[in-house]
Amino acid sequence: VSLSHKKHQVCTRLTRSQVTPGSVLLRWEAMLTMRSLACTTALLVLVLLPLTQSGPQCLQACALVIDPVCGTDGNTYSNSCFLDIEACENPHLNLRIDHNGPC
């Protein structure tokens, strides 16, 4: 995820049927904890992101696989999926992968 994602809320245990458009499930700090857990236990974690109500219909979930990419905006994203979400939510940025690995 872009380090600039700030719109996440506290993580709660929800089933898919409880998640509605516009639901916000994570805060960056909670994601860092989950990423550490995923790295140490080899778990696959899905991060659900909010669906914007007025903007484009962007992807809502990414696997929390740590495979960093550097965006053309100078930010490091956990993987290309998170960069794609940022690019979809902010088309004016014309965001692409600059190179694999952190910026």
Provide structural commentary.
With 103 residues, the protein is an alpha+beta fold. It has one domain (16-100). Helices cover 23% and strands 15% of the residues. The protein has two helices and five strands, in the order H-E-E-E-E-H-E. Strands 4-3-5 form a three-stranded antiparallel β-sheet. It has a two-stranded antiparallel sheet with strand order 1-2. The longest helix has 14 residues, at 28-41. Residues 1-33 and 35-45 have low confidence and may be disordered.
Compact summary:
It holds the Pfam family Kazal_1. Keywords: Disulfide bond. The protein has helices spanning 28-41, 80-89, and strands spanning 46-48, 61-63, 69-71, 76-77, 97-100.
- Give the termini separation: 13 Å
Q: What oligomerization state is this entry in? A: single chain
The number of distinct β-strands equals 5
Net shape? flat
Mean pLDDT across all amino acids: 64
Q: Sheet with the most strands? A: 3 strands, antiparallel
C-alpha Rg, in Å?
Answer: 13 Å
How many helical elements?
Answer: 2
- Secondary-structure element sequence? HEEEEHE
Any low-confidence stretches, pLDDT <50, length ≥5? 1-33, 35-45
Helix residue percentage:
10-25%
Q: Into which percentage range does the β-strand content fall?
A: 5-15%
Class by alpha and beta content: alpha+beta
The main sheet orders its strands as 4-3-5
Number of domains: 1
GO cellular component, one term: extracellular region
Pfam families: Kazal_1 (PF00050)
Keywords: Disulfide bond
Domain Kazal-like: 52-103
